[in-house]
Every structure is written in structure tokens, then in C-alpha cells.
Fold:
Amino acid sequence: MEREQLADFLRRRRQAIRPAEVGIADGPRRRTRGLRREEVAMLAGMSVDYVVRLEQGRSSQPSAQLLVALARALRLSDDERDHLFHLAGHRPPPADGTARMARAGLVRMLDLLGDTPAAVMSDLGEMLAQNRASLLLMSDHTGFRGDRRYMIYRWFTEPEVRAVCPPEDRDLNSRRLVADLRADRKTLLHPRVGRLLLDCETLVTPDQGQELLVLTPADTETRERMELLRVLGSEEFPTGTADRDGR
Structure:
């Protein structure tokens, strides 16, 4: 890890970005050239103190996840992103690797939500991370490859995926998926606890590249069934048994 070079690179990139490029108003009283450190921290989903320590060359080695978040916040090109990874002592991810890593701040929020099912999704509908409650509810959707990475693709091409939705709701759900994959109230059929009526709330990151989805019970019966599910433990949905290599 080349701390001084890393610190200089981050400072220069922060100062080179106009606030309007990342959706931040550039008011008349603004004195800072480029972005403020707190603005980079907000965009990257990390603490201001850690951004300060990085720019002062006195931080611990940042994880690959944090580097991905910084690269996205600072609007780095592929070459600049790779340079950032090298300075931090990491091997750069594959060309599509950055898009497939959940922001560090969102991953921390998954843990904080505890027994509330939540997941991180990309703007293209790929599941990037899930907490334990989400795994119990719908099994693991993070390991698919190729076009099967996208939930909407699997919905229309794999009948077993549609089995999680009541037959009478499938046409409506198909239209909703096309309109907006992450909107509306959802009904799921769980193999162990039956029908679940869920509300889906979405938190969008400032760069609109990722979303945090939080699923909450829409009625008392669903709340009781979800509590039972936590007691029963893990049970995979049919989607969780699919071959993750796309075969």
C-alpha cells in the first residue's frame, strides 16, 4: 500500500469533480474546489473520518469493497479505478467486478436491519447482497452468472422462479417487473410458511447505481408467519437450487 501516493490521488480526484456532476448544488457561498470530504463520504457510504485519514496518508488498508465505493463516488474511469486499487495494494477487479459489489455502507445497513429482510440490488436488477432474514425469505440470489444474474430475466425464462408467486398474481407481477422491478406490494409463496404479503421500500444511493430493498410484513398474519420462519430456520426456495454457472 502506497499511502502518500494514494492520499494525493484521492485529494486530486476529489478536487477535480464539480458538485453538479454528482447531483450536489453548487451554491454561491461554496469555497471548496471540487467536492468536500463529507460529500465524498456520503457518496461512498463511509465515514468522514475515514476519508480524512485516507487523504492524510494515515489510514489502514481499505478493503476492495471500500475502493469500489470510492471509485464510484469519484467517477473514476476504468484505468483510474485500477490505479486506485494498485496504490491501495489490491489487485483490480475484473471489468464488470465493480458493478457487482455492494457498497460498503449498504452492507453495514443490511446487518443493522437484523430480522427485517433486506437486500442490495444494482440498477439493472442484479442482487448484490442479502442479509440472513432475506436468505430465509427467498434463498440466495447473489451467485448467478451471465444473463441469469438479473431477476427479471429469470422470471420470464424459468418457470420455477415464477412458482414463488401465486398463479393468479403472475400476469400482474410480470407487468410490474417490466415497469419497475422494485416497486409495489408483493405476495410470495414460501415453501414452509405459505403466503406472505410484503411491502417493499427502496433506498436509492446518491449516484442511483444501487438500491437497498427492505421488505416488511403488510399484515398481522404475514408478521406471524415471518416470525415462525425465523424459528424454523433456512429453507431454500426453488430458485436457490438452480445451477449458478448458467447451465
